Structures are given as structure tokens and as C-alpha cells.
Predict the structure of CRISPR-associated exonuclease Cas4.
Amino acid sequence: MILISHIRQFIFCPRILYFYTFCDIKPLYPEYVSLGTQYHNRQNELFKSRKFLKFKLPIIRVYNNLYLQDLSMSGIADLVIECEDEIIVAEYKNQNKPILSTGAKMQLIAYSILASKYLNKPFSKIMLICSNNLKFKIFDITNDDLIKFDKVINSIKKMIDQEIFPHSNASIAACIQCEFKNYCDDRE
């Protein structure tokens, strides 16, 4: 089963998922991981008093930290917004502007697929939420995004099924912040 959080990591560098899956390594996480955890904890506290009126959506219910699973994927979505005719999955990001990376987009699509099944409603959008005052941006999901998602999932399955040590497409800047940089042996 693929952990949805690993999809983003696979896109950042496929070797991260390899190390998590096949190696018994306890990585030392950079400080930004701790800061991100603190940010998410704060958002969970704030969730209790929020009405989400700022989103201007026909909201029926908002689910916080919703566990989702099917036969191939599982994970915990930060927020699932159930509207009258659709669902929108939202992710909290500890950043100043709602900038969506490819990895975050693929991760949100995975949550959206599972949330869509769980709530029996379609999805066509995802959302990033930044800062404590709910800066947000809604992004449309295109058919090309779904095709790319399928390719990523198939690549992950192939790597896991065949236990392939993947090529690293990460930049040196990405490698510097990686928790597995001491094990990869590709960078100085």
C-alpha cells in the first residue's frame, strides 16, 4: 500500500521512498519538519473555532485530519471540504504564499480520489491554505493532472514491486535538505 505522503517525496526524489521502503534507516529530519509539525498542530487547534466563511463555498461539512484508505493508498488529509455538489481537499502549508509544487498537487489528487469515493461526490479542485489567517488558493485539476498522477503511481508501484534503486532527479539544492543525503552517495 502506498502512503499518500510518500507520493510528494517520490516526486521530490524517488530515492527517498526507496530508503523509507527498503532500508532500516532512522533519518535525522531538518528543522523545517519540526516547524511544519508545529504549524499543523496549531491549525488543528484553530480548526475547532473556524467557520471557513472566507472560502465562500457552499460548505456542508469540513473534515479535519480525515483518514482515507482503499486497496492501494492510504493517508490522512488535512481538510476535506464537503460542498453541495463536490469535495475539495485542502492542505495546510507552512509557507507565506500558496504555491503548489507538483509533488503537493499529486498528493492532493490522491487524497481527492479517496475522499471522492468516501463521500460519493466528484472533485475538480484542490486547495492550499497558508498562514494562521487562512490565506488560500484553489487550483483546478485537469485531465492532464490525472494522467500525470496515474504515471507517478505506476512508477511508484514498479519501483516497489521490482525493488529498483531509482535514479535521482533531484537538484543539488534538494539534496542538501534531504534527510537521506548521507546514504545516497550521489552528491558531495
Summary: The helical segments are 4-12, 14-22, 31-47, 102-119, 143-162, 172-176, 181-184. The mean pLDDT is 89. The chain has one domain: 2-184.
